[in-house]
Amino acid sequence: MTLATMGFAVRRKLADLGESARLFARLVQLSPVALARFGLVRDQIFFLGNLSMAIIGVSGLFVGFVLGLQGYYTLQRYGSSEALGLLVALSLVRELGPVVTALLFAGRAGTALTAEIGLMKAGEQLAAMEMMAVDPIRRVLAPRFWGGLIAMPLLAAMFSAVGIIGGWLVGVVMIGVDEGSFWSQMQGGVEVWNDVGNGVIKSMVFGVAVTFVALYQGYMAHPTPEGVSSATTRTVVMASLLVLGLDFLLTAMMFSI
Fold first, then answer.
1. CA separation for the pair 116, 27 (Å, rounded)
2. Residue 229: is its pLDDT beyond 80?
3. What count of other Cβ atoms lies within 10 Å of the Cβ of residue 83?
4. Three-state secondary structure call for residue 214
5. 45 φ, ψ to 5°?
6. Cβ contacts of residue 153 below 8 Å, gap of 6+?
7. Contact 87, 67 (CB under 8 A)
């Protein structure tokens, strides 16, 4: 690789960062306009959230099953099997709920957003809007941005709730852990702000990250079938890596406060 090739690659990456920063600033600027027309945002919440509930619910249930089994056999070694409810709740609310939901959200809703925007660009629908003096960022991207931001915390809460039920089914119904200890340990050990609040903040940040990556990749995709396919693949890869990286940063910040 020559120096000129490296310089061109670096310049192209910097240009992409600049374009993404400009688009994000534009979406934030248009937030009052998007929320004023809440009907468009509501439709996107249904498209991104309601249609993702099946995979989120089933995944949360099986994650709760696994946590119940693994947690019980681990805690049993130390004679603390009564703390199974606390272990399941903290694992889901702090980490697994927001992170796994964000990864599933990227795979289902993120790819759908990218493909939808990319196909609109390939079909010249966005260009037609501009010809009619309609801002596509205002009309198309901003409602979807807020739809993803609102849907993500709701899906993460559902994932954690269903996961706790799964842990209860395995720990209490199947294995025989005392039900009173299961719920009382959970109620006494889970704090609203330090645990639930941190999980909500994480899910909101992940929602912004995943939705923006999906919108940007679709908006900047080449208007060809190959371009839309490549943009959809990049959405899953980039959004997943971004979620994992942000999870580490947010966890480090929250535990240091």
1. 18
2. yes
3. 19
4. helix
5. -60, -40
6. 200, 203, 204, 207
7. yes
Q: 72: buried, middle or exposed (CB in 10 Å: 19+, 13-18, 0-12)? A: buried
What is the Cα–Cα distance from 217 to 240, expressed in whole angstroms? 14
How many helices, marked H, and strands, marked E, lie in the chain? 13, 0
The per-residue pLDDT for range 95-148, each reduced to its tens digit, is 999 999 999 999 999 999 999 999 998 888 888 888 888 888 898 999 999 999
Q: Are 231 and 116 in contact (CB under 8 A)?
A: no
Q: Residue with structure tokens 């790819």?
A: 111
The first and second tokens of residue 206, run together, are: 């992940």
Distance CA 186, CA 57 (A): 21
Q: What is the pTM of this model?
A: 0.91
Helices (H), 169-224: 179-189, 198-219
Token pair of 129, please?
């809007």
Whether 215 contacts 141, CB under 8 Å:
yes
Give dist(CA 9, CA 172) in Å, integer.
57
**Cβ-contact 168, 182 below 8 angstroms:** yes
- Rounded alpha-carbon distances, angstroms, from residue 220 to 74, 119, 120, 181: 48, 11, 11, 53
124 Ramachandran zone, left/alpha/beta (phi>0; psi -120 to 50): left
Tokens of 35: 């929320």
Which of the listed ranges 35-44, 121-130, 209-218 does the model predict with the highest average pLDDT? 209-218
